[in-house]
Design goal:
Blueprint: E1 6-11, E2 25-27, E3 40-45, E4 48-54, H1 69-78, E5 83-92, E6 102-111, H2 136-148, E7 153-162, H3 170-176, E8 182-184, H4 187-196, E9 200-210, H5 220-244
Parallel strand pairs: 1-4, 1-5, 5-9, 6-7, 7-8
Antiparallel strand pairs: 2-3, 3-4, 5-8, 6-9
Length: 262
Amino acid sequence: MPPRRTIGVIGGSGVAGVLDDGARTLHRVATPWGAPSGPIEEGHVGGVRLLFLPRHGPGHTIPPHRVNYRANVDALVSLGAEAIVTVSSVGSLREELPPGTFVLPSQFVDLTKQRPTTFFDGGKVYHVSLADPFCPDLVGSAVEAGRAVESPFAEGKCYVCVEGPRFSTRAESAYFRGFADIIGMTLVPEVTLARERATCYACLAMVTDYDVWADRPVETAEILATMARNTERMGRLLRRLLPSLAHEPTCACARALDHAGV
């Protein structure tokens, strides 16, 4: 398997700041599933070709339940992305994961309700395995990068993905704590679609708040303030991580469909 040359990154507008100075290209891509969230910005980071896509569109205008996840993943792969790294804001369901913590989930529970979650809606049927949903190669590289820039990740956590855009009730939050560590609105179906495209995928989650289980309602202002504080830290981590991904993969992600077809 050859080394990776192109990495796709999905996240907020602040992520684009990791690109090296130099020529950049904007790609406006059409897919069989419609248009992605916005133009894809191409540049380089430490010699690696980077494709950046703002998940919620320019100016953060698309709510999580309306993101065209199929178009986003397909557009990045069509432009050559061999791995997809995403940056996501999440709420914490654990006291030991306070706001400001960086988390690498290893499992997820899908509680979304109305999102298309597969590319395989007809014709040949595929049942991809998601027993281990995140690329171990990307996760291992992220762990090393986090330690190197003194922003270590909490590893091996479970992400519960809800529909949004509303926040949880107190009863829901208490329920989620029975099986998950962090809560967010964007992981699914990005992670499942990447597996169906046999593409490496990892989620770099940033805790912005304690969910309402902590007896204090979640406030958007608090989330935005924590995100702003985390932007510089995440930028340093990505500038360390992304160039390190230009190696020969050790994972089996590229073979995800080899035995999935019926």
